[in-house]
Structures are given as C-alpha cells and as structure tokens.
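fwd from M.: "can u put these together and see what the complex looks like"

so here's what she sent:
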Amino acid sequence: MGHSRISPFLTPCIAYFGILLAGCGTVDLEIRRGHTNSNMLPRSVAILPFTLEEPDPEEVSPHELFRTCFYNYFSYLGYVDLPLKTVDQKLSQAGLTDSNKILQLSPEKLRKILGVDAVIRGRVLSASNFTGGIHAETSIKAKIDMLDLRTGDILWETEHKEMTYSGILSPTIVDIIQGQLANVNVHQAYFKTAEIFSVNMMKEIPDPADSWKGEIRLPEITYIETNLKPNLKLKPNDRIYVSLKGDPGLTGYFDIGSWKSNIPLKEIVPGLYTGSYTIKASDKVTNSLIIGTLKSKNGLTGKKFYKNGMAQFDSSSTN
Amino acid sequence: MTSLTIAKNISGPRWCRPLGMFLLAILISGCASDLQTKVSGNLNSLSKDQTVAILPIETSHAGQKEMADMFRQGLYANLKQSHFNLMEKYIVDSLLKQNNLINPANFLTINPMQFGEILGADAIVFSRINKVERSYFIVHSSIELSVSVQMVDTRTGEILWRAEQTEHDFSGIGKIPTGIFTALFAPIQFVTNKFNLRKMTSKMLDKLTALIKKPENAETNTKFENLVIAKKATTDLKKIAELQQLKAEWTQALALDEETKSAVLQGETTQETRKETLALKNDLLPPTPVAGGGVQNKVRSMVHEVLAVETEMAPLATVPEPKEQKDATPTPLNMLKATLATPIHIENHGKPPREIVKPEKNIKNDPIGSAAFYTVQVGAYKTKAYAQNLLSKLVKKGYNAFVTRNNKKIYRVQVDKFKNKEDALKLAQLIQKKEKLKNFITRATAG
C-alpha cells in the first residue's frame, strides 16, 4: 500500500534527475598510459576532416559543423593548431579529398603531408535533430582521438554522446516552448550541441600550455628610426623612410597608424631592416605613429613605436 | 521566426489567442537581454594579417573567476568564427606575466600602445564581468549576468568595438511549471546547476559577438559616429605630441643658440654647456632598447621628460626675499666665456635681484646702449605665447626682461643689457640660482 503511494511521486523525480544529469554531459576521455607528461605532448596539431557514419542530412553537415566548433575551442589550448583551411588545402594538394580515406593514412604519410606532430580524428557515429509537438532533441555521438604522428600512438580517445533535450520532462511550459523553437533552427541546434560537446571535451584534453610558457619570446626590436620629425607635414611624393634594428632573419614591415599596414621592410644586413613609403596625393593621414614589426616563422610578432615624430599629411598641399 | 509572426499565426478558438499571447509574453520576458553594442568603421580594415589578443577578464570579486574563464573561452571561440587572427591564450598570458601584468583590473589604466609592444598585437580586447547574481526564493530563482567588452586598436588607441550586455533568466511560477514537483525543484536546479550558467553565457556571447563577427552589416545606430580613442591612449598621445613639440622647439632654439654663441663667444663653451647640449641632442637619438617590462618605464620616462622640460622652462619660484646685499663671489675667469649650468653661490642682501646685480655700467645709462650689448638669454621659443608667459613672470619679479625675435622667427626671452660681460654674468648667476633657469650670455645689437 505504502509503496503504491510513494511510487507516483518517485517516478517523475527519477526521470527528472535523469534528464538533469544527462544535461550535465561530462565526457569520459581516456588518456592512454604514458601520455600524461605534458612535456611529451605534441606541439603542433592538425584537426583532420571529421567523418559521418550515417547518410549526410540535406540541410546541414553536422560533422563539418562539429569540426569547426571543435577547432574554435581547441585553439584555446596550448597547441600550435593548423588552421582548418590550411589542413584541407594541404590534403587537397596531396590529392586527398575523401575524409574516410584520410583516416586510413599512416602516421608517417600524414606527418609528411601536414608537417605536424599529431592529428585529431573525429568520427561522428550518429547525429539527429528532431522537433515534434512537445519533444525536441538534437544529439551528436562521436568518437574522437588524438594520434601522435611521431610515434604512431593514440594519446587519448573518447566516445561520447551529447544531447540537448526539451520536452515533457522539462520543468516548465515556457522551457518546453523555448526548446521547441530553438530546435527548429537545425544548423543552430547542431552547433549548440557541438559546442557543449567541445566545451566538455576541452576540460579533459591535456593542455601543454604550461610547458611552452617559458619559451615564449617575441622578436626583439632594439630601435626604430624614421625621417619623420615633429611638426613635419608630409606632401605628395614625400617619402617616409623607416629603419629598424632587431633580431636577424625575420620578416619586417611597418605600419603608419592603422591607416597603412604591412609596408615591407627589407633586411639589408643581418638585423637591420629598411623600407619606405611614398605619400600619394590621395593620402589623408593625420597624426599617425610609425610602428615597426618583426615577425618570426612561428607567427609571433615584436612591435616598436617610433615616438619622435608622427606622420601628418599637409592638407593644404592638395588645395 | 519572430515572436510577432508567431502571434499573428495563432489561430483557433477565441480563448486560444489570449492564451497564446500570454505564453509569448512569458517567453519574451523569461529571458531578458539588454545589449548595447557599437563598432567603428575602421574595424573592417583589421585584416586577417593583424592579430587580436583577448586579455584576461577583469572581475569584481574572486567568486566570478569561473564565469570569467568560461566567458573568455567562449569569447575566443566566437571571435575565432570571425576573420580575426586571434593570439593564443597561453601566449597572451605568458607575455603578460613576463611583464608583471597579472591584474586585469589595471589593464585599462595602461596605454593600448604599450600592449601593442608587449604582446605584438594590433588590437586587444578588454572585458569585465560586471555582475553574476544568482538569487533563490522558494519557488523562484534567477541568474543575472552583466559584461562589458571593448576592442582597441593598439596602433592608434581607437576603440573598434564596444559592447555591454546584461542577460537575465529565471525559473519559477512565471514559467508555468509542469507539476508541483518541478515548481519546487526547478528553481533550485536552475541556480545550482553550472550547466545553466554555461548555457546563459553561451547565449549571451552569441548575441554579444553577432555584430563584430559581421561588422560589414552594422547599421547606422550600431556604428560610432566619430572616431573614439581610448582615454589612456588620448592622454599619452597628447603627452607624446607635447614632447615632440618641445623637442622641436628645443632643437630650433639650440641650433639658434649655437649659432649665436659661436658668433659672440667664438665657439667656446664650457663643459657644462656641452653636457647640457649633448643631453638634449641625445633625446633626439633613436630610443634606447626596451627589454622585458621596460616598455612601461620607457613611456613613464617620456612623460617624465615632458614634465621635466616643463618644470625647467615654465614655473618660477616665489618672489625672492629681500636680503642684505653682499659682494658677489669672485667669478673665475674661464666663466666669462661660459654658459652657466651650475649655480654659483651669490648672496643677496635685502634688495630685489635686479637692483642687486644691476651693473654699474648698465646699458641704459651707457652711451653705447644703442650699439652692441650683452644680455642674458633665458629661453627661446617658436611659440610666441610661451615666450610671453616667461616674460610676464620675469617682469612681475622685477627683472628687466624683454622678448626679441630673430630672422629664424624664434622668440628669445632675454634679461637686461650690459656693456661688459662680467655684469651680465653676475645677473646670469643670480637667475640661475634664484629662478633655477638655465641661461647663457649672448651679444646682441640694439635697435
């Protein structure tokens, strides 16, 4: 008797907490033994095209969406990640366009093509989006791993299903309606699910950032000199000369405020870079500082402002 | 589909329509959002070649750290969808740490140009969590989030994007619970489950970054009407401009003085003068290398330089107290050829300076006054107002100061006229001591 009185109350309780827990969505990421040392983690990583084990839905490609979303969050970690476009470009140049075939490639071949330490492979096992009456659901189930191309080992892997749900078990009517409306936009619904999947994964993926922090050093510029002098008004055909001294063997350029960017500097002797810009009649630069930049191969840039003069255009010269 | 469209499409029995409207009203009010965002037209010129650094998020108290981390990660992922070339978080954090910039609350007090040099970034994003408020009252709970974001071009100090957003959501009776159980427990779950906070943050970021992800779609009301420069950048740019102006004037004045001195004193100068001139010339040389946290010091020193020059040029001390006159200390012979840089001990004895040092053969009383004379030059300016400012201060103190203008259009502030150098030197020494004004003796022609 007592059992039958409690049961109607317990059932929704259990179901409700079940849904709550499902919403929390922790990812069970398995890190292979021997790969917990962050010093041994790969530096550069490429995210290979994700595959979809099911027929591609007409409206969206959940696996491509997931890959983009995953990349946006993965970039936040301390790896040097190859932009997706670059990855696709390199694979395409190697005659590889079929995502399934790419996954079959050997670590050596992948390393040769992409030039990275590791790759992330993603297989979307199932993806669904359903909205009907009082039930709306979007889910992505995927298997993702990181393959160390230096050793051929799998560093970590996971198989997880992420689901966003709204329906009869939602706590309020408004939540149900909001959930239905949100789920109607299929692209957005997949993206949001992929986002939750990615965020949950990032919490588990080993981050080597601390290992590299000590190595971060921007290219050094010891001085910058220009022919600009205080109160000097530039006229058409005047030339701004810039020279800067800094680390040798880098790419140098200078900016005139934000008005003119990336004007190249030539390294005339190791560590000494020079360049110039000729003012045109159409130029309307006002009070802009000259900024010298040196860029290293790994994309880090060192900047230095020239503060002894500003580029100012003589407006009267065009009148 | 907008709420309005849905409202129009509601059909069925008469009682259905008000119910539908009621539900929609709840839907809209259920998750309130207040967003104010504006972009600059120059944002579009920030190409993929330029780098953007998202700085650590400022929080108002330690309890917001988790939200701040979540927000920064989300902001990064959202801006990654745009065309920006984002600097990786660990690089930004590492460089900030190397420069002892660990407190985000101080970031807005630093000139964006400094961040440009420290991080090598073309633009930086400052963000602040203004509020994370969770409240619970039996059958009602709510979460309110408020953030401010600003993207600044480090090359110009221009604010490229500014946004403030408040997001509010609740759970409770107002959302029509599906049962008694959910009416009681949903509010608790709403405020305690981190997933809801993350969902709200994600939703907030979608709205917040919508404009900056596609700035080309910005409408007039979401564009800055004028160029907006960050406050700190404005101040420092002004100081740099002032410094440049002063340097320009000094350069011209020095060139002029060198000419005058070489003509009058046959090119001989004291060691002190050489030092002074050299120091000023060194200011015009390329900046010295800046290492590590030196960027801040460099700017500070530049600002200090401006102040130092101003202090040296502008203010005059209080009116000299009359003291009993005493003979001046004998002057070494070599000083006769020199510009004075170090004070020489001279005592006043109860008379105003002009009277004390008034030479016996002051030009005014001298028949040769109409011809060449010696005078003490205390300043040279390209701007007349500066010269007049100094002149009025000197005149108020009783000096027989005057302004002359040479053929290079430099306004020179000079004091008194003397037939011989010794008298001029005495006055020069006094001015150096009492007024802390560097000066030199020059020869000029009256008329």
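replying to her w this: Chain A touches chain B through 73 residues (CB under 8 Å).
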